[in-house]
Design goal:
By secondary structure, the chain is of the alpha+beta class. It has 19 helices and 19 strands. The chain has four domains: about 260 residues, no CATH class; about 220 residues; about 70 residues, no CATH class; about 30 residues, no CATH class. The chain is about 40% helix and about 15% strand. The longest helix is centred in the middle third of the chain and has 36 residues. It binds zinc ion.
Length: about 675
Amino acid sequence: MASSGKRTRGPNKQTPWARNADDGVSVLRLALDTSDPLQRSRIEAMFEGAYAVTRALQRGVRDACRAYKAAPHERALDPAAVRERLGLSRTALEHRAYAHLDAAPHLRRFVTKALSMHLADAVWTSAERHLFADGSGKRHGMPRIGRWFDFTRLPGRARSHTKDKKWETFRLHGSLAGHRAAYTDRDGAFVQPRTLRPVHAKDWWRYQGPLAVVFSGLANNATLVLPVRLPTAPSNQPILDHHLADPSRWHRITLVRSRDPHADGGWRYEAHLMVLTQPYVSPSTAERRARMAIETADRSAGIDVNVSNVTVASHDTGAAMALTRIERDAGQRERAWKQKQRERRRARALDRARRAANRAQYQLSKRQEQHARRLAAAGRRPIEMIPKGPRNERGDGVPFQSYRRDALSSTYRRTRAEQARDAQAASRARRDHARTIAAEVVATHGYQLVVEDVSIAAWAASWGAALAAFSPGTLVSAIDREARAVGAIAGGAGGVVRASTRTTALSQHCPCGARVSKSLADRVHQCPVCKLTGDRDAVAAVLASFVTLVTHGNPSSAQVDYAASVDALREIRRLLRSSTSSSYDGWQDTLSESTGRSARDGSSFAWMTPTPGTRELLPRAAVARRNAGTARCSTRDETGFGQTTSERATMRTGMSPRYGPTRAYLRDNS
Ligand SMILES: [Zn+2]
């Protein structure tokens, strides 16, 4: 800012505020009530304005990146100077955002400079990933122009922890105590009506009533006030106390929207509140982890990941071996199949709606053509029909009219929104379920686990739907998180460690050290040397539990400790023999909040769900899952197209393969 010639007060004399890393960070999801049409129109206008700014920035960045790429000679001399010239830096991008705002006063009504600065930062992140390689030497592709339906978050500014009453963009006002006091009924129960009361305050900084997210600084002194809806279930109250009791720890709010065909305006809004505190851990979980940290300290475990199952084996220095196989049971498979059928019906309905609204873009099917010819031959009037044939396209497979220019009916949009909502619900339920299983796995097998370093994304190409239905990647990352949490208590390194396939070749060896070659189709391990027989995955998992890493964190330094495994051969034999019967601990099919048949995500904030174990006393309990719980991170990366879920990938029916195959959609980072 030196170039502006503005006089400043010089460097900050106080020590700048810095976050204490030990405090931790946790993100709480707060549902927002947008039933007030005035407030809803304001938040919608904010999203529209922010989208316009973002898109303008994205276009600018893309053009600059292209120019950067097109100047190899200049780049070879001084790449930093080229970036400077093209305005490829965070600051330059922020200034570009301000310029957009100044040039388009209508945007100023709903987008402030602070907000546009954060939008510019988000766009810069994607450009940065394109320009610079990450730790593994990989770079992202050219920054894209995001789509309206992928534009789901408005990043807010962190509050000042040194200056009082300084919190720009989105702020959270009110207090938890005030909220509970305002919504307590005569019997003393915490209840909230379907429509929350509107919130007003003259001085927000003194306001202590029900919680609300506030954004002031809009044009004409308008203020955006969205009442917060808290989960009322008793089990959620400790989570709220943990995050909301101390307002000085509230740090930053990101506004997130998700599509919901049943919400007014078609979108549902949430505030993701970042709180400077450790993520909430229930007393029972903390107690379990502390116990496991002591009990399983000497256990080492191995994981064998497969397309349809995950096998975990562990031993306590060669003794007390345990084996668990996690796979979907009949009930889950049936439910998955039904969901697939439902999804297929919906994909067909979407395709039909698209064809009906864009008849000129499609040809008649052979049968329809025949029918039309017959009518013409009989001298009858041709009838109007929805064409069922292929899309009109050029010789190289590019359609004459791009799909995004298609007219889409309201039925199409509603169905599409339902599909997006269901996909989100399904992945959330899968994550919830994986967490439960991870807790069981770590309790049985300890917190030091080894897994073969395989690329699950590569499997997706050949196994696709089967893999998405089981999602081993989600499971392994859940195990990793749980193991890390237990390891942190134990004071040692916990987690899932990766071992290179090249140095270990777990599926091709026997615990006795002999090489036993198997093709993918061979499901049984039979060693000609030591005569060990057992399930292929079980043997691989057992072998993985004997893997040691010479240098920590380097998968290619992994080696199997055959001396130890040979010593434990008798124990291994016993384990494999007992596990050939049905003694595997399966993926239990308990009805939980996420698997309960009535647990439908999306239609309302609270719904009825069966409560396991208490069926006689409490047949059904109201649970508000949507707005309970926490989010893993508030700032999802803005990558545009990439944010597709497995369910979405399968619906890309009727699309030309020109636009690429359905992408490898496992987004886990395990
Ligand atoms: Zn052997």
